[in-house]
Each structure stands twice: as structure tokens, then as C-alpha cells.
Amino acid sequence: MYRIAVEDATRSDSRRLAASAMAGELRTVAARGDWGAAPELIDRARPPAERFGGDILGRFLSGHALWLIDGPEQDLAAAQRDLERALRIWRELDDPAAEVRTLNELGLLNRKAGRHAEADRWYEDGLAVARRVGDTKGEWMLLQNQAVLAHLDARAGRGDYARVVQRYRSSLDQRRRLGLPYSLSLANLAQAEVEAGHLEDGRSHATDALRAGWERHDPLDWTIAVIAFAQIAFVENRLDDGAGILRSLLAVRRTPSVEGEIAAVLEYHAVDPRIVGPADESQDRALVDVVDELLAQEH
Questions:
Q1: Range of the structural domain that residue 282 is part of
Q2: Domain membership flag for residue 70
Q3: CA nearest 113: which of 141, 147, 79?
Q4: Which run of H or of E encompasses 104?
Q5: Is residue 287 a contact partner of residue 248, using CB atoms and an 8 Å limit?
Q6: Residue 10, Cβ neighbours under 10 Å: how many?
Q7: What is the count of structural domains for the chain?
Q8: Burial letters for 50-80: b for 16+ Cβ neighbours within 10 Å, e otherwise?
């Protein structure tokens, strides 16, 4: 009888481990946008996750929500239900790190849905938990997303740039305290300073961010910094220079997110998007040459 009990327990442990692995894999698959693999994995992972509950179910709900937010069958209302259910699980399990992550994801979801005030409330709730438990990396993540939210509002005329600059500075200060690379926060701050009309501060921050991101081979960081330099050119009415910078960037970084940010910048500065147009290899310089020139400028 004892041996049978042990064998049953072993099988149960094995099934639990398999369920846990599938739930974790779903989150990984959804986070990297592997939408082809997600549907089958969701069908396999859901029944054991519901059966075992607890942290396994929490991870499944989190991964499923990412699929519903960014996948081809987007359903933001269902994603919110999943995340709120996951949030209740993490609170019951007293897992503040998972709670902070889920509150951040609720903020991102509501930002995507255009509910910015609600998104900001989720971020504030997350900051309260992160600060209570000393989750400094979670705190930075929420500060950065709050800054991005304020930036979107300011571009749309719903907020002021003083708030945007203050939030990006808070994000930057937190990264520095953590001893982590901070060129992305610096590049974001450069954009905000330029859009606020503080060109010299923006140029200085953009140069420092571009140099750091370029040396670290971090494309996200130097991409935002390069876009900030194009914005400076637009503000200074050097439209052809700004357009040339963006064409050189798009020649090596033509992704949906980069194209979306460039479209937003062109709209903000009231620049006709046709001025960017397709790259012209006979006229446009290579991005590496553009970067060398930008870094050589005095600031």
C-alpha cells in the first residue's frame, strides 16, 4: 500500500512539473511573439493549470493574457480578466514580485486600450507594492512605463512636458541607482526635452545616449537616440537633414515599432511623411557614418 501511495505521489509530482513547465513555456512563447506555437500550447496547458491552480495557473493566465494582448486574435477584455484573476492568485500566495509584474501588465494593457487614467492607476498600485517590498527593478519598470504614458499624453495635447521630463528623470535616476545601463532612459529623456523645446539639453542627452547605446551594441537605445537627433533637425527647420537621418536608420532598423515611432514623431512635428520616403542608396549615407557625425558634434 505504501509503495502504491509513493508511486501515485511520484506520478502526481511529475504531472505537476509538466503543468508548471507548460505554463512557463506559454509565457515565454507569448513574450517572444511566437504566435504559431501558442494556440496548441494553450490547449495543452490550460486543463492541468486549472486542475493544479496556484502559481501554475497564475503563470498560465499571464502567458495567455500576453497572447490575447499582442497575438493575432486580440481580445483585451479577456486579457484583463485573465490578469485580474492572476493578480488575485499572486496576492493569495503573497508573491509580491509576481504581483508587481501583473500590475505592470495591467497598466500596459489599459494603455494599449487607450484608457490612460486607468493605466496610470495600475502603475501606481504596482509602485506601492514594489516600494513596500524593496523591488527596485520592478519600481524602475513601472516608473519607465509611467513616463512613456505621460509622453503619449503630452504628444496628444493631454498633458504637459514638465511631467514627462520629471518622470523620465525618475526612471533614469533609478537605473543609475541600480547600476544598470541607462542609455534608453537617457534617450527617452532626450526626446522629451526636444519636444519641450529644450534643444540643448535634448542634444546633450541624445549624444550621451547614442554613444552609450552604440558602444554597447544595443539597437533599442541607439535607435531612440538617432530619432531624437532627427527631431532636433526638424525643430531647427533642417527638414532634409532630419529626413536623411531617418532614412539611414530605416535602412537597418525597419521594424513595426521603429516605423510606428517615426510616424508618431513626424505627426508631432507636422512633417509630411513623404519627405522620408524610401531609402536612396545613391544619396543617403550609411547609418554608421551618420552616427559618427552626430557623435563628433560639440554639445
A1: 181-192+201-299
A2: no
A3: 79
A4: helix 96-112
A5: yes
A6: 10
A7: 1
A8: eebeebbbbbbbbbbbbbbbbbeeeebeebb
Residue 268 lies in a domain: yes
Q: What is the CA radius of gyration of the chain?
A: 23
Give Cα 228 to chain centroid, integer Å.
18
What is the four-CA torsion angle of 70, 73, 79, 85, rounded to 10 degrees? -120
SS3 breakdown of the chain: % helix, strand, coil, rounded to 5?
80, 0, 20
Cα–Cα distances in Å, from 61 out to 35, 85, 150? 16, 8, 28
Which pLDDT tens digits describe the chain residue by residue (299 residues)?
Answer: 433 332 343 455 788 988 899 898 998 888 888 888 888 999 999 999 999 999 999 999 999 999 999 888 899 999 999 999 999 999 999 999 999 999 999 999 999 999 999 999 999 999 999 999 999 999 999 999 999 999 999 999 999 999 999 999 999 999 999 998 899 999 999 999 999 999 999 999 999 999 999 999 889 889 999 999 999 999 999 999 999 999 999 999 998 889 999 999 999 999 999 988 776 655 668 999 999 999 988 55
Q: How far is CA 251 from the centre of its chain?
A: 23
CA distances from 45 to 60, 63, 96, 270 (A): 7, 10, 24, 48
**Hey, how many other C-beta atoms are within 10 angstroms of the C-beta on 90?**
21
CB atoms within 10 A of CB 228: 29
The reply to whether 137 falls in a domain is: no
Cα(37)–Cα(75) distance, integer angstroms: 18
3-state secondary structure of 288: helix
Q: How far apart are the first and last CA of the chain?
A: 80
Query: Of the candidates 203, 253, 259, which has an alpha carbon nearest to the alpha carbon of residue 230?
Result: 203
For every residue of 207-244, DSSP letters joined together read HHHHHHHHHTT-HHHHHHHHHHHHHHHHHTT-HHHHHH
- Specify if 1 maps to a domain: no
How far apart are the C-alpha atoms of 18 and 14, rounded to whole Å? 6
Interatomic CA distance for residues 269 and 265, integer angstroms: 6
